Amino acid sequence: MLSNHLSDGIGMARVPWSQLPSSEEPEGLSNVDDELMAAARSLAGVGAPVESLDYEVIENYAYREQQAQKGKIWFTYTVMVKWFFALLIGVGTGLAAVFINLAVENFSGWKYTATFSIIQHTYFAGYLVYVLFNLALVFSSVFIVTHFAPAAAGSGIPEIKGYLNGVDTHGILLFRTLVGKIFGSIGSVGGGLALGKEGPLVHTGACIASLLGQGGSTKYHLNSKWLHMFESDRDRRDLVTCGCAAGVAAAFRAPVGGVLFALEEVTSWWRSHLMWRVFFTSAVVAVVVRSAMSWCKSGKCGHFGSGGFIIWDISDGQEDYSFQELLPMTIIGVIGGLLGALFNQLTLYITKWRRSYLHKKGSRVKIFEACLISVITSTISFGLPLLRKCSPCPDSEANPGIDCPRPPGMDGNFVNFFCSKDKEYNDLATIFFNTQDDAIRNLFSAKTFHEYSAQSLLTFLVMFYTLAVVTFGTAVPAGQFVPGIMIGSTYGRLVGIFVVKFYKKLNVEEGTYALLGAASFLGGSMRMTVSLCVIMVEITNNLKLLPLIMLVLLVSKAVGDFFNEGLYEVQARLRGIPLLESRPKQFMRNMTAKEACKSQQVVCFPRVVRVGELVSTLRNNQHNGFPVVDQGQNGETVVIGLILRSHLIVLLQSKVDFQSSPFPCGPRGVLNSHKLSDFVKPASSKGKSIEDIQLSEDDLLLYLDLAPFVNPSPYVVPEDMSLAKVYNLFRQLGLRHIFVVPRPSRVLGMITRKDLLLEENGSSATMELQSSSVRGQRYNEEMLRSRIHPESSILDSLLIQK
Amino acid sequence: MLSNHLSDGIGMARVPWSQLPSSEEPEGLSNVDDELMAAARSLAGVGAPVESLDYEVIENYAYREQQAQKGKIWFTYTVMVKWFFALLIGVGTGLAAVFINLAVENFSGWKYTATFSIIQHTYFAGYLVYVLFNLALVFSSVFIVTHFAPAAAGSGIPEIKGYLNGVDTHGILLFRTLVGKIFGSIGSVGGGLALGKEGPLVHTGACIASLLGQGGSTKYHLNSKWLHMFESDRDRRDLVTCGCAAGVAAAFRAPVGGVLFALEEVTSWWRSHLMWRVFFTSAVVAVVVRSAMSWCKSGKCGHFGSGGFIIWDISDGQEDYSFQELLPMTIIGVIGGLLGALFNQLTLYITKWRRSYLHKKGSRVKIFEACLISVITSTISFGLPLLRKCSPCPDSEANPGIDCPRPPGMDGNFVNFFCSKDKEYNDLATIFFNTQDDAIRNLFSAKTFHEYSAQSLLTFLVMFYTLAVVTFGTAVPAGQFVPGIMIGSTYGRLVGIFVVKFYKKLNVEEGTYALLGAASFLGGSMRMTVSLCVIMVEITNNLKLLPLIMLVLLVSKAVGDFFNEGLYEVQARLRGIPLLESRPKQFMRNMTAKEACKSQQVVCFPRVVRVGELVSTLRNNQHNGFPVVDQGQNGETVVIGLILRSHLIVLLQSKVDFQSSPFPCGPRGVLNSHKLSDFVKPASSKGKSIEDIQLSEDDLLLYLDLAPFVNPSPYVVPEDMSLAKVYNLFRQLGLRHIFVVPRPSRVLGMITRKDLLLEENGSSATMELQSSSVRGQRYNEEMLRSRIHPESSILDSLLIQK
């Protein structure tokens, strides 16, 4: 009785699969890959089309052939090219960053110089010039984005994060996106909107890396054949990781922060040998940026100067802190968590609304929207300081280091704006009517007690927070780092003012509290930890504040996590980018793999398939991977591998493998017909679709033998493995398809640690290797025949036959 | 013809496995897990026994039952306990570090105070006191290690690295090791040997973490039941990672460096949500250490002071550098690579020799050896400065900040030792006759041009290098960081002297070159990149040197990699710890999984096995995992899972599952007999062995049904997957066993990204989940019967039957 049930369970494995409910119509079955994404997309309104990336090595015949041919020299060459590319990415990103900074600072410099010189005469003309200057820049930015590079809008970090998680959003890594990002962010940042250039720089770095990886832009004929090295998604991913790190390193002049950002925030996987290369890229960026800055020091670059790259040196800030101060610091953390979470939520709603209503109406609405926001921002930043009463300058004898009011044409604190007396300054103008970099520097500045009134800071906080929320999601390149630092440092300084007032301690610096506030807001919004901490330390150049920054980040992230996800996760979800978190959900432990894929049906192809059938199946579904099964002697089926839609389309397009016989072809026909590079997916992610394929009626009647083109060894899991384990496999190896298969009937061997410790020389395995690698065409027929023994692998036996 | 061969290949899957050459004697087959390790061990001489760890979730019945019972509250509780443990690890490691530093500095302080006061009268008596003091400390250290905690010898980092790579070395994480490490390193460092306390601190942190994870030490009755939370190797691994980071954070007061060290150097895998916890632990350590130091500031802690923790503030060092200087810096990198690689090679030879000849002779030889080295070290460090002529002090008017000679009882430069005149100092004594921390501080010091003569530095370099090589591998706790920094900063300062001489630039600081030298030697020896860079920046508190440190590290690592592996890899290999590198070797791409395990044979158990057979099989081999197969209706076999040796031993010991019937038992018998915790491996890694099991003759005739205890879903790979892909799977998921199985006959489903994006609520999968989780015993029989439908998983059908 007992064994009856048991054998039921096991015997099931023997039920012909045509009788199972899920396999009644083998050709009508479907494995859905992109339906959910389509659903997510429709939920999210418009949104760019997304596609999964394939980080798995497709070990098809062409790959094996290439591997067998390549020797040690090829390997060394590859490594050298990879390092050379890391160098190029560093140099390219560094130069792009220098260019953007140069342009932004010069535009801003001209703008403020012109405005300040005009307001000596009339404020209204100054206002007009200021508004028009900003409007022109913002218009150029939004025009470039809407008409030339739509993927350049926003920060780009959610998309890059998605890319490295395994989801390709169309168009994010194109050459036009790169151009749009660079020029667009010059316009949007130079135009004084409440956004930053750091996110776009990360995207720029990733674009440069990706373009290098594909050997340039094909569309614009800027590509070079000999650079065609990186043919798998995997290699490109490594390059894009380097590019991300380079972007952060360039944006913040924080090389270590860049490596950590790439590691913690962006990538979903990590290999320690890659760290070394990423590190190198960051170092190159640091050197490039530094060299450019020292070259510009003599004034060759206009307004671009040492203050150019955001680096707010507060090394003369607060050195020591008492335990008493931990309370206000914790409060800063809590405020950061709350405001950050609120920011994420508000931007989510606004972006949703924008996508559903506003942006559907076309480019004109987008342009109008950005221009309107520009005018509003200019008006507020010009108008509000006018309403503010000026404060008298601090006593210059008691504070010898202070220059008040600041001389015209200089950066610094104590801006004289609409002040009636000479020895007065406008504290609101100091932060509002200024570039954001300078404003932050002023907020962080030490030894400037009571420079800002609580009223001004509060006004600024409310207005700027609102502007940042509203600006988020317009069709311009926009980073959230600098606005976040602005918001955070404002309330941080506010708390600092109260601490100075109540604790009555002299060694408390308001600037230090501003820094902690900045860290807390970024932590509460972006939810980064180590990388943010290192970036904050690197940009402020003060290591002593590290424990405090850590504390504030811990609190703000914990508070923020209580309410919602991080900014990039929220935005990625909104854009229909299905990110996989690093750990499986708890309930997955109680689910099996089979339960997870019960709702779908699998579309299988036989080994030799009629072309017409292939085409109709491809047309009838959107799935990207198909198992290929073949019949054994006794009518049993065996799975010989996985074929990708993109590979099928390549085969259908080239037509050279079509055959009239419905039986498997010999190796002669296929061995030289395709190289690995034929199957390389174009980096633009929009390969040919099945609709592009034109086949004659005659072609449709021919057959195609899929065996040489399948990936013969996709990862498989037994049907009753828990979904949590499957999740780990999928996520950690960056897979796209996993086969759920019945329990195996026997174990041919066990792989343990020792089997993987083989040395190339001196192990018997090497001998085996020589004879079993796929180099069929070099052997004569007898050699070939002798190799077909029962133990040779199935793929080999498929390929090497007469 | 063609299809003939094909069907041969496929039909092979149908050959009954008893006919395959590798399975003629199913019971006599063997899957070797530890033979290579035994071989490695014999190669390495003695060496502690090692065992693979199991980071995979064993989804046996007990686990499934536990998972089904635990709700959200349990999950929240677990998370809270994990954070609480991170806090405890931080506090514990911080306190241990403070204690070690306090003791070392006080011992050293007393030693030097006594010696300096005696040498005012007679140098010989001073020498004797110095030697004896050192000897006593070293003797205590080596005595503790040899007689109490043998696993505490050395730095411990290779073992911890191995642990986190998946190899458990016996005894490294015991309570006695912790005690031995703490007190041993006080003795060895206080005794003035050429070694540091940083490696041991990392080991200390890991021990504390591991002991917390197992709820205290069982042997010393310090354990607590309610802390028994972390029952899998996986959870313990997370804790040990936190411990490592805490150790580095405490040793260098470098919290970010600690996180990165744990990430880059130690762990073999990484999950980004763990980073957050590791970061928290480091932050706690920083706060603890800081608080202790500020508490001690008032002089309550004797000689322990602000200079205690190695942190060599060179924030007043060189600010700027010219491109000209890149050449000498590159040279420093090359020297570092060469000397580092040489160090690794020499220590390898010496450790080999020591293991093969010296240490075989027992503890006495080890004690004698350490004492001899102590006497030699003392003699050299006391004697050599005697031979050196004193130099006149620099002009005190031109250098107002310099105190020369240094007042007695103070730390600092310009030691007056065996000088005839008052206004003289002995440059060799300043670095040699001093604690290493002070010596490094002196070498790094800025504004001290020409303090050291090239001759002195060269003498010191040669002598100290030799001492460091000879001391490496003695039976005392020993870190290589501080000796490395000593060696590196010496030749760095040498190069600096030449740069000052030839470039004739005033803003060149010899101290900055010393720092770069230190970075280069560590890079050349340990081959770390990002973490070392951050540690160097954090201990010198100078961010501006970051690009230079990066450059030097890149060069030295590249040069070193040309010759050999990193220090820890070399040492791990020597100790028979089979580390898996992060990437598969190139030739593995051309090998299949089956080829890799061809040499071994698989020992399988049937589902119901006779106890006697089980015992004899376990006695006859050393393998740790066995596939369990069962017979289907038609005599076909099906693999129902993997059973671990350790679990079998638990079953054999408890005897409650023995049955007289040779048929599978019903679920009643087993459901409540074992809890998950019964199968937990003791953290000491020396569980029961099969030799400890005593069974009567009657017992041996009984049967045991293994089905409820197997891991039903080990990871499987098809036989012809390339070994490179298998390697990635094994390495990235931290596995211990992978089954190599024949190609599947069909695909039941495909798992793609969308299947893993399930939400717990609102998905149809949740409903399935409720009915298929293993909670058999709560259902009545009818419920049970209704669940046995053909689609239920095999394990369930095995367990839930009458």
Write the layout of secondary structure elements.
The structure is a homodimer of 802-residue chains.
Chain A: H1 2-11, H2 35-43, E1 50-52, H3 61-69, H4 72-119, H5 123-147, H6 157-165, E2 167-169, H7 175-190, H8 198-213, H9 233-252, H10 255-266, H11 272-296, H12 326-358, H13 363-387, E3 391-392, E4 424-425, H14 427-432, H15 436-444, H16 454-471, H17 481-503, H18 510-526, H19 530-540, H20 546-563, H21 567-574, H22 593-596, E5 605-606, E6 608-610, H23 611-620, E7 625-631, E8 637-644, H24 645-654, E9 658-659, H25 667-671, H26 697-701, E10 703-705, E11 716-718, H27 723-733, E12 738-741, E13 749-751, H28 764-772, H29 781-787, H30 794-799
Parallel strand pairs in A: 5-7, 11-12
Antiparallel strand pairs in A: 1-2, 3-4, 6-10, 7-8, 9-10
Helix pairs in contact in A: 4-5, 4-7, 4-8, 4-9, 4-11, 5-7, 5-13, 6-21, 7-8, 8-9, 9-10, 9-11, 10-11, 10-19, 12-17, 12-18, 12-20, 12-21, 13-16, 15-17, 16-17, 17-18, 18-19, 18-20, 19-20
Give a structural overview.
- The structure is a homodimer of 802-residue chains.
- By secondary structure, chain A is mainly α.
- The first copy, chain A, is 54% helix and 6% strand.
- Chain A has a three-stranded mixed sheet with strand order 5-7-8. In chain A, strands 6-10-9 form a three-stranded antiparallel sheet. In chain A, strands 1-2 form a two-stranded antiparallel ribbon.
- In chain A, helix 27 links the parallel strand 11 and strand 12.
- In chain A, helix 19 crosses helix 20.
- The longest helix of chain A has 48 residues.
- Chain A is elongated and about 100 Å long.
- Chain A starts with a helix and ends with a helix.
- At the A-B interface, helix 1, helix 2, helix 3, helix 10 and helix 11 of A face helix 1, helix 2, helix 3, helix 10 and helix 11 of B.
